Amino acid sequence: MSNYHIKHLEEYWQVYRRSVRNPENFWEEIAEEHFLWRKRWDKVLSWDFSKPEVKWYEGAQLNITENCIDRHLATRADKTAILFEPNDPAEATQHITYRQLYERVCRFANVLAEQGVGKGDRVCIYLPMIPELAVSLLACARLGAVHSVVFAGFSATALATRINDCDCKLVICSDGSYRGSKTIDLKAIVDKALEECPGVETSLVVKRTGGQVTMQGGRDKWLQPLLDAADAQRDATIVDAEDPLFVLYTSGSTGKPKGMVHTTGGYMVYTAYTFKNAFQYRENDVYWCTADIGWITGHSYIVYGPLANGATTVMFEGVPSYPDYGRFWEIVEKHKVTQFYTAPTAIRALAKENLDFVNKHDLSSLKVLGTVGEPINEEAWHWYNENVGKKNSPIIDTWWQTETGGIMISPIPYSTPTIPTFATLPMPGIQPVLMDENGKEIKGNGVEGRLAIKFPWPSIARTIYGNHERYRDTYFSAYPGTYFTGDGALRDAVGYYRITGRVDDVIIVSGHNLGTAPIEDAINEHPAVAESAIVGYPHDIKGNALYGYVTLKETGEGRDQDNLRNEINQLITDRIGPIAKLQKIQFTAGLPKTRSGKIMRRILRKIAGKDTSNLGDISTLLNPEVVQAIMDESLA
Ligand code: PRX
C-alpha cells in the first residue's frame, strides 16, 4: 500500500525518506492505487535537467476529467462538487453535484467541439469566478484541448499578448463581472484585445451581469443557447500523460510573460496527493480556497486537486470586504468550511478591521488554515492563528510557484509542529537544496542561501510555451543540475525552511507576481518620460508596494506632477492591469547607474524602504551625485 494519507510526524519522515530513496517506486504506487488510467505507463520517470527534460508516467494514457468527475459518479453523484457563493450575499448559493458537474462539463465540451476545438488546440479563458470558469477548464481537458486562463483583472493589452503568445483560436469570456460593489465590462476589454488577435475565430460569451455588450457577427456567440442545444454526455478524449493540460502565464523579471506548460499525468497525481495531505482532506469536509482560478493556486487547489479527491470545493465570486469585512467569516459559518486557504495580503487587510467582523461568526468548523503566495509576517500569522483558528487550527504556510504546479514545502497539519513564518518541511518527493552565490550547495542546518530543487517531482512545468531555451536559461542555468526557484531561503537548526523572498527582479504585490521590466516598459511609453525604474518597498497590507523613479524628458518638465502620476498609472492599468499601479512615483533628475549603464535597483530599493544607513560603496557608480539628490527628494 502506498502512503497516500500521512497522519503523524513519524509517518511523514518514513514516507519522506522512502520518497527520496526511491522516487520512481514511490510515485508509481501512488499513481497505481489512486487514479484511473486508460493505459499503464511504460516508464515512471525519465529526466535530464541539463536539457532540461522531465517525463513522468511516459506511455500512460488517461483523461483528467474522468479522474476528477466520472469515477466519482458511482459513489458521490449527489455530493456537492462545487459550492458557488456569489458576490451578492442575497443571491442564492449554488450546489453543483458531481452528476451536474459531469453534465455541465460534457455539454460545454460538446459546444467547444462544435466550434472546432480539438485535442491540442489552445483555448483562452477570461472569466470571473463563476461556475462556468471551472466548467470551462474541465471542458477543455475533456477534449484534450489546452486551456490558458488569463486572470480577469488583466488589461486588454495583457490579454492580447497572452492570447497571441499561445495562438488561442477561441476565447471564453463573459459580458461582465461583479467585484464587490463594482461591475466590470469584461466583454469590452475582450473586444479591445481581439483587435490585436487575428488568430481568434470565436468567442463564447457567458451572460453574468446582463450588461450592454457588442456582439461581433460571426465571431461572438452567447454560450447559453449553445449549451442548451448540446448533448449532456461526451466521451473523454484519451491523452498521453505527457500531453499538455494547460498553459498559465507568470511574470518574469524581464521580457514578456512566460507561458508555463503543465502536462496531464504528473500534474494530476501531484496536485491530488498534496491536496489530500497538506489540507488533511477527509470525505465530507468543505474546503475553501479564496484564490482566483486565474492563478495557479486556483487551478491546482480549487479545481484539479480537490476534484480528483472527490471533495466539495467552494468558489467565491466576490471580495473579502463586500458587503463588509466579515464576508469570509460569514461564508465559513454558512457552509461550515473545514479548510480555509488564503493569501497573507488578505489576512493583513482583514486584521486591520474591527475584530467583531470575525467574532460574530461561528468558525468552529475550521480544522486547517492555509496561506500562500508570499512570506507571511509574524503579526499576521498570530492574528490568523488566534482570531480565526482560535489556536485550534494549524496554519500551513505553503510555499510553491506557478512553475512547480503544486505545494512544495508545507507543514502537514496535525503532524508537523508549526513555527510562524516557516513553511517548514518539504512534501514527500521534494528535495530542496540551498546554494551559495558561487553555485555550491550549502549543506547542514542553520544556513541561508538560494533555494533550488535537485530532483524532479511530477508536477514540475515542462517548458515555457514556444521558448524552451528561455525555460532552460531561467530555471536550469543558475545552478546546473538543479531547478532554481528565484527565492532565497534559510534552513534552521532542525531543518525547517523559511522563505525569505525573491532574489530577482520579481516583486510580489498582494500576492501577485510582477516583473519590473513590463511595468517600466509601460511607463516609458509616456511621451514625457525619459527613463524609469521600479522597486518594491514594504507595505502593511500588500506586503510590498511599487515605488517608481521616473526621469522626465525636457518636454515633461514643468508639467503638473500629479497629472503626470495619474497618466503614468493609467498607462500601467491599460498595459498590464490595475494590480501593477505604482503606490508612489518620484520624479528625479537621474537614476543611479553602474559604469556599464545598468540601473542600480539595490540602491533605489533601500531609499524607497527608508533604509539608507548602509548604501554600500556608491563611488563606483557612473553618477554617484544623483543618489543624494534622490534621497533628499524621496517621498515621505
Ligand atoms: O516568492 C515565492 C512566493 O511566490 C512566488 C511564486 O509566485 P506564483 O508563481 O505567483 O505562485 C504563487 C502561488 C503558488 C514564489 O517564488 N511564495 C509563494 N508562496 C510562498 C511564497 N513566499 C513565501 N512563503 C510562501 N508560502
Query: What structural class is derived from the secondary structure elements?
Result: alpha/beta
Which percent bin holds the helix content?
25-40%
The CATH topology name of the largest domain reads: Rossmann fold
Strand order of the largest sheet: 12-11-8-6-7-14-15-24
Mean residue pLDDT: 95
Strand runs, count: 31
Oligomer: single chain
Query: How would you characterize the largest beta sheet?
Result: 8 strands, mixed
Rounded to the nearest angstrom, the radius of gyration is 24 Å
Helix segment tally: 20
Stretches with pLDDT under 50, minimum 5 residues? none
CATH hierarchy: architecture of the largest domain? 3-Layer(aba) Sandwich
Listed once per kind, the bound small molecules are: adenosine-5'-monophosphate-propyl ester
- In CATH, what is the class of the largest domain? Alpha Beta
Note down, in words, how this protein is organized.
With 636 residues, this protein is α/β, with parallel strands linked by helices. It has 2 domains: 9-319 and 398-475, Rossmann fold (3-Layer(aba) Sandwich); 506-635, ANL, C-terminal domain (GMP Synthetase, Chain A, domain 3, 2-Layer Sandwich). Helices cover 31% and strands 24% of the residues. It has an 8-stranded mixed beta sheet with strand order 12-11-8-6-7-14-15-24, with helices on both faces. A 7-stranded mixed beta sheet has the order 5-4-17-16-18-19-20, sandwiched between helices. The chain has a 5-stranded antiparallel beta sheet with strand order 22-21-23-25-26. Strand 1 and strand 2 (53-58) form a beta hairpin. Helix 5 crosses helix 9 (223-229) and helix 7 (156-165) crosses helix 8 (186-194). The longest helix has 17 residues, at 98-114. The radius of gyration is 24 Å and the shape is globular. The model has no long low-confidence stretch (mean pLDDT 95). Adenosine-5'-monophosphate-propyl ester (PRX) binds next to helix 11, strand 20, strand 25 and strand 26.
